[in-house]
Backbone:
């Protein structure tokens, strides 16, 4: 007996998976917050308007345990109330908009120079994993995975610093400039 092949998913993410404040890991007004944003693009360079991205990262002190509180429910309506605004959970879930754009507001990760990114989109039989290495992070030069990649693979994993505390990271699902995706075994 052979396993059943995966089925194409989506684009149903908007009904249950995104939640209010899903891309806001940093408490409002935090002085150390950074913004990471970009587009998800298909092989032809067209925007993917219904992708869903999950981000995982350690807290600024390097703690990888996270905290509960990402998806609280409103006690009156039963709907999603979003984050509590103070606890750093280390987890974000962001949907792309009609132009394929996404935005994440977070704090710089401690102990790792990157944000782990998981991409879900229509047409993908399995989600894709990659990393967004923050340009200027002090640990970028000592990351073993990054050092093990060919220069052209490495280049596509770095964010582009557009302004202080504003990073851009476009995700290309196919094509000549395809993002380097990671396989976990």
Residues:
């Amino acid at each position: 007996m052979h396993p059943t092949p995966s089925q194409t998913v989506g684009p149903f993410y908007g009904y249950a998976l995104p939640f209010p404040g899903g891309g806001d890991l940093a408490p409002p007004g935090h002085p150390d917050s950074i913004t990471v944003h970009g587009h998800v693009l298909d092989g032809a360079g067209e925007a993917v308007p219904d992708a869903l991205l999950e981000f995982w990262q350690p807290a600024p002190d390097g703690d990888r345990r996270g905290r509960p509180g990402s998806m609280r429910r409103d006690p009156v309506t039963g709907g999603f109330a979003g984050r509590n605004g103070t606890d750093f959970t280390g987890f974000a879930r962001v949907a792309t908009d009609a132009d394929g754009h996404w935005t994440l507001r977070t704090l710089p990760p401690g102990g790792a120079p990157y944000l782990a990114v998981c991409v879900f989109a229509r047409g993908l039989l399995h989600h894709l994993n990659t990393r967004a290495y923050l340009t200027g992070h002090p640990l970028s030069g000592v990351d073993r995975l990054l050092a093990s990649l060919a220069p052209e693979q490495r280049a596509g994993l770095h964010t582009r610093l557009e302004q202080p505390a504003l990073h851009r990271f476009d995700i290309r699902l196919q094509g000549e400039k395809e993002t380097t995706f990671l396989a976990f075994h």
Summary: The chain has a mean pLDDT of 85. The two ends are 23 Å apart (CA to CA). The helical segments are 144-148, 151-155. The longest helix spans residues 144-148.
